[in-house]
């Protein structure tokens, strides 16, 4: 998979993509993550990429021209399955969307800033808009990092145990059951006996019941 990220601050991605699973996925050649600075495509001598909004109002707007030039440059190198704009009013990202995007070959993320991007970018260049929640961030970089992480971990070969991702929360519409590890008793706190029984069928039944109960208590909206 190839993931291109258009941003004003490429350095913000150095930490989240330079460690742990994300680093290993790139080292294995399972994913390539490329960050491109939108300012490189500004025709202004000061590398300006924003301007005042027509009609007035507070805040600046990212201009269409440098974004268009950047997208066309990247499209000249490969065909993208989606050009995704990170926006608080986009479709809310969830596990099913992560599953779907993880099957794509080439994705392009556009990170907005200020009061967002010129609407013509959204109308003519963007194919999908995604939000990670009903709140506003300083820019789309954190959202792009979150979504990239959720997608990449689903690519076959990224996780040491490929079955692990299939048992994550939300994969079956439920929250994951509680998990325990050694020792079986710590500080007087005991692991449920069923998990020590060795009876796998009953353990799976218990896990499903726990998932269902937790979902009812903590995320009843998922059961709708």
Keywords:
Alpha/beta knot, Trp Operon Repressor, Chain A, two-stranded antiparallel ribbon, 6 helices, five-stranded parallel beta sheet, 224 residues, alpha/beta, 2 domains
What's the arrangement of secondary structure elements?
Layout lengths: L1 E6 L12 H8 L4 E6 L12 E3 L7 E3 L1 H12 L6 E11 L2 H7 L4 E6 L7 H6 L3 E4 L9 H12 L32 E2 L2 E2 L9 H19 L6
Parallel strand pairs: 1-2, 1-6, 5-6, 5-7
Antiparallel strand pairs: 3-4, 8-9
Describe the fold and architecture:
- The protein has 224 residues and is of the alpha/beta class.
- The protein folds into 2 domains: 2-152, Alpha/beta knot; 169-223, Orthogonal Bundle (Trp Operon Repressor, Chain A), CATH 1.10.1270.
- The chain has helices spanning 20-27, 64-75, 95-101, 119-124, 141-152, 200-218, and strands spanning 2-7, 32-37, 50-52, 60-62, 82-92, 106-111, 128-131, 185-186, 189-190.
- The strands form 3 sheets. Strands 2-1-6-5-7 form a 5-stranded parallel β-sheet.
- β5 (82-92), α3 and β6 (106-111) form a beta-alpha-beta unit.
The CATH architecture of the largest domain can be named as 3-Layer(aba) Sandwich
Q: What is the CA-CA span between the terminal residues?
A: 34 Å
Largest sheet: 5 strands, parallel
Quote the CATH topology of the largest domain. Alpha/beta knot
The CATH homologous superfamily name of the largest domain equals SPOUT methyltransferase, trefoil knot domain
Class by alpha and beta content: alpha/beta
CATH class identity of the largest domain: Alpha Beta
Helical fraction: 25-40%
The total of helices stands at 6
Give the overall shape.
elongated
The proportion of residues in beta strands is 15-25%
> Any low-confidence stretches, pLDDT <50, length ≥5?
none
- Count all strands and give the number: 9
Spell the H/E element sequence.
EHEEEHEHEHEHEEH
| Strand order within the widest beta sheet | 2-1-6-5-7
The number of domains: 2
pLDDT average, as an integer? 94
